[in-house]
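Table S5 (text form). Sequence records supplied for joint modeling of the two-component complex.
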Amino acid sequence: MKQLLFLCALFGFLSWNVISSEDTLADNYAEVEVKDGGTVVGNVKYMGDLTTLSLNLYADFELPETSKTATEKLTVSMINHGIKYAIVSITDITRGKKKAIPAIHPIIDQQRNNFIPHVTAIPAGTTIDILNGDEELHTVHTSTIKNQPFNLGTTYKQRISKTFEYPETIKLTCDLHKKSYAWVVVLDNPYFDITDRNGYFEICDIPPGTYKFQVWHEELGKLEKEVKINPKELSNIEFVYSQY
Amino acid sequence: MKPKALLSKVGLWSATAAASAALVIGIAPITAKALNIPTEVTEDGKNTYKKFCSACHGEEGKGDGPVARSMLPKPRDFTRGAYKFRTTPSGSLPTDEDIYRTISYGVPNSTMIPWDILTEQQRASVIPVLKSFSEAFEVRKPEAPVAVGLEVRPTEKTVAEGKKIYEEKLECWKCHGVEGRGDGPSAAEQEDDFGFPIKPFDFTTGKFKGGNSSRDVYLRFTTGLNGTPMPSFAKELTDEQRWCLTHYVISLIKPEETSK
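The corresponding structure-token record, covering 504 residues in total, follows.
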């Protein structure tokens, strides 16, 4: 009987611990049901000079195999000047749709000395799996302040799961292959999207009101725009970066 | 249940509790118990920091004191909460005892001397001052120290096994060099989180920065060195493999280099 009581007490204490630790995750975003939300679709463009970007600094010298991987830091579509991997988000929203944390962990894979995908956007609290698909050693190195930083060596087929609890823009690097890096952008609300290869994005179920929209790109920086959202209406916005 | 049986059960329980309590007190490090590390910033700590630490580490702990310019490796910038020598897992904040240890023993091969000229109480009083420089200590808590397994006896076989890990599995030679002189092919391009160039460690000198015992060497590649390119291999190696690698790394010390 005594042991049973002890076990009960222990279990109670543990479960209380779990509950209280979930409560401490502070955020200033309230989840409500959005009935007549508006939708924003749009395009992110780069209208600057493209010729400077294609400068070949290596001038046709024979490169080692590891340096031949293509960099994805600025991918501009030839059809409509759309930019891939720009993140559009609403910065000043305090209440809205449910923050859906993906049950299947997003994956960042290291293949041929590159991180794939190059940019990942996630709501805070998401776990990311970082893999190594190369038959050689890589490291995954972050230097964050709020989220726990890490620096881990990974061998072939290793899988590392990491949870990002706080909104931050995080750079993942590999210290053995200095050219490769990836970005993980952690956001505190679910209203964000990452542009496709033609620069298109879509954010839906936004409660009516006026909001600040922000676009972030690793090379081109940030742009901001204020947009009024009407109920059940489709608004069209366009972000244009004029110079590099 | 009969009263006698109950009595014996209670007796057994309390005996176990007493024994485990005694064991816990016995195992805990002496420094942690004998020393009272303050949790709040004290006037004494501020004065000690200003007098002895700020010349290198800067008044605000940014590692930018007046004499820091001429130093490499650079004095630690405390604002990021990245401490190299810890017993906690990769990326975690250090425990108070870890900071106390680094202050007391210093860091060989750098300008950080062992501060045993200060009293124990003075050294302890600096710890909350260092922690107050970084907001990381407000958001996160240090994780539990990693478990160090029972040491494997160093033999020729374990050293050979360690050599295999060093050269084939983890490719440590890419930075630290085949002979452990810190001259591997990736050595030149390494830099730390603050953007300063950093040299991979030269094992032949034998002056290990985090301490010379095999436990210290074992801890370095289990916990990694925060703020530097040195990663943690806690997931990659079993406990036994880590001891083998420890023995191999220690075997790279060249006696003629240690006197330099």
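Note: Chain A has a mean pLDDT of 81.
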